[in-house]
Amino acid sequence: MERQNVDHLAAGDSVDTIFLVAEKHVRVNRQGAPFLVLLLRDRTGTIEGRLWNVSEEQSRAYEVGQYLHVRGKVQLFQGSLQVILSAIEKVDGSRINADEFLPPAVADIDGLMRKARSILMGMSNHYLCALVECFLIDDAFVKKFTSAPAGVRKHHAYRGGLLEHVVTLLTAAQRISDLYPKVDKDLLLTGIFLHDLGKIDELSYDQVFQYTDSGQLVGHVVMGVCLLREKVRKVVELLDEPFPEELRTRLEHMIVSHHGSYEFGSPKLPMTLEAVALHFLDSLDAKLAEFTRELEDGAKNGAWTAYDPSLNRRLFRGTPVSESQPQTEG
């Protein structure tokens, strides 16, 4: 069977191909009849599939992480493409190449790790250098850190996305450090490295990107603090001297406050210069990545994206610069 990739689907196309189930929801229509909503994915993107008038047995038959052979018709609804499904059938995952169904990984993992090591091991604070080193010599940690996405759908949702996000923030912090001399650069760099590390265990990213049980119940903020405390104990053994209590507390504060406000999941508001800087750098990179994904995904048949309820807006693509430039004779 020839693959039909998500990024090549258009309104009116007939679909007869295999997708991975990334999300599943059972909903009811206005008449109270249940229907199935599946987020179907391959390496090129995602598309929503809807199967009307499902039985209770059908609603339980399909789960996230399964591969399905689907048939249906693509239609454009409120600016977004969706597949109205006529038939779905489970496919044996052992015969599937999983790489065809996950977003492409970051291309240069080794280069990003070299850059992260160079920036972090160039710090002058020997406690912070020792702390970072305790993470980077842990092979099990590094394997997770270089594989994890930074999110399930919103930003940097691909293998290596967490590493890419951290390196972008480290680079940005270096470039602005001269403008804000009162911000402790080494503390900010270490806080950037630590702030999302709990995601290596909060998320599952072997097949589909989803939350682990502990991720749902505890969350990456608390998990990050636990990882930090574990490595601080290693630093004490490495240096054979106590780790400064205030320094540890400042790092913990940066982890628990980096979301910036209570409504976005911060147990604490940022209360140090470094925590404030981390929050706004993190928010900038996450938002730009999220908006870029929105501009690049979905039906690209107009100057505007479809309305996104999570963003509470549409985004303007406009005309590509190369197409808007007047042509001149040679």
Could you describe the 3D structure shown?
There is one protein chain. The chain is α+β, with helices and mostly antiparallel strands. The protein has two domains: 6-100, Nucleic acid-binding proteins (OB fold (Dihydrolipoamide Acetyltransferase, E2P), Beta Barrel), CATH 2.40.50; 103-292. Helix content is 40%, strand content 18%. The strands form two sheets. It has a five-stranded mixed beta barrel. Strands 6-7 form a two-stranded antiparallel sheet. Helix 5 packs across helix 11 and helix 6 crosses helix 11. The longest helix has 24 residues, at 273-296. It starts with 13 loop residues before the first strand and ends in a 6-residue tail after the last helix. The relative contact order is 0.10. The mean pLDDT is 89.
Shape type: elongated
Average pLDDT for all residues: 89
Spatial order of the strands forming the largest sheet: 1-2-3-5-4
Low-confidence stretches: none
Q: Give the topology string: H per helix, E per strand.
A: EEEHEEHHHHHHEEHHHHH
Provide the fold topology.
Elements: E1 14-28, E2 34-42, E3 45-51, H1 56-61, E4 67-77, E5 80-91, H2 109-120, H3 126-136, H4 139-145, H5 161-176, H6 185-194, H7 199-202, E6 203-204, E7 210-211, H8 213-217, H9 220-239, H10 245-257, H11 273-296, H12 321-324
Parallel strand pairs: 3-5
Antiparallel strand pairs: 1-2, 1-4, 2-3, 4-5, 6-7
Helix pairs in contact: 2-5, 3-9, 5-6, 5-11, 6-10, 6-11, 9-10, 10-11
